[in-house]
TrEMBL record:
Residues 111-130 are annotated as: Disordered. The lineage of its organism: Bacteria, Bacillati, Bacillota, Clostridia, Eubacteriales. Keywords: 4Fe-4S, Iron, Iron-sulfur, Metal-binding. InterPro entries: 4Fe4S_Fe-S-bd, 4Fe4S_Fe_S_CS, Fe-S_Ferredoxin. This is 4Fe-4S dicluster domain-containing protein. It comes from the Bacteria. CDD domains: MtMvhB_like (cd10549). Residues 39-68, 70-99, 127-156, 158-185 form the 4Fe-4S ferredoxin-type domain. It comes from Anaeromassilibacillus senegalensis.
Length: 185
């Protein structure tokens, strides 16, 4: 026989009646966010190389990267603040900021545009990978890790090729090379 309770929430109601309110000085005192709060994504657009890794790792598809237009777009309504984009960013230009985004009545997206660097800075900025064939074992790891599929490795022919048009200079290939035969220049 199930026990029937007259006031199942009486304990909670009494506890809340005599406890300190959570919103005491809300509009006049800044909010104290919990220690493990994720926050929201921000970008330092001048450091972005438009590799697109953030957009590919975004579960809800809230990010769009247009390399030709030099833009990075986030749909704040679709973003679930998981932090995947900040973890995969090779240049660490994405980061989580504590706090909530401003609520709004419309579904809005924010677009950030990278400034066009002078030619000299563009060449120095990331650089393209250069392979030292004397050290290379043609393991294909650099080609597998390349987010733009800009590297082609043929183990049988012992050849390594870079499509400079596709390469964004992120450096993931050089970082993943076990023999350290790739350098960015």
């Amino acid at each position: 026989m199930a026990e029937w309770r007259v006031f199942p929430f009486a304990h909670t109601a009494l506890k809340n009646l005599f406890s300190k309110p959570a919103t005491t000085g809300y509009p006049f005192e800044p909010v104290k966010y919990p220690e493990r709060m994720r926050g929201h994504v921000q970008i330092k657009i001048e450091d972005c190389i438009s590799c697109g890794l953030c957009a590919r790792s975004c579960p809800p598809g809230a990010l769009k990267v247009d390399r030709a237009a030099r833009t990075w777009t986030i749909n704040r309504f679709d973003c679930v603040q998981c932090g995947n984009c900040t973890n995969v960013c090779p240049k660490k230009c994405l980061f989580m900021v504590p706090g909530y985004t401003e609520p709004g009545a419309q579904k809005v997206s924010e677009t950030f545009t990278r400034p066009a660097p002078p030619e000299q800075e563009a060449q120095q900025a990331g650089g393209k990978p250069v392979n030292d064939a004397s050290k290379c074992v043609y393991c294909t790891l650099c080609a597998k890790k390349c987010p733009q599929d800009a590297i082609t490795v043929d183990r049988a022919a012992k050849s390594w090729a870079l499509d400079a048009e596709k390469c964004v200079g992120c450096g993931i290939c050089a970082a993943s090379c076990p023999k350290k035969c790739l350098t960015l220049k």
